[in-house]
Amino acid sequence: MKVCTSKTVNKDEIIEDFRNKKFRCLIATTILERGVTIEGIDVCVFYANHGVFDVASLIQMSGRVGRSFKYPTGDCLFLSNAKSSIVNECIHVCKEANHG
Asked: Measured between alpha carbons, how far is 9 from 65 in angstroms, rounded to an integer?
């Protein structure tokens, strides 16, 4: 397991090692929210109800799942310490987009 934030000096190396399956769990901030494709991953967002997240950012993070033909599906888990309309709306939008 490794940790990666915007302040991590060797973040590109860590992301590449994760992409190449050199370790199984990467804990990251929102730096991986956009523009990163890694096959066969699941996503867990801790404190998904935190004010730093909006519907769009949660959708972007959930969009890291199922990014290839080989691994077209996966799981995205939103962990919250309270009910959240933002999380609920994100789940609704994702369900609509994936299941019509």
From this structure: 26
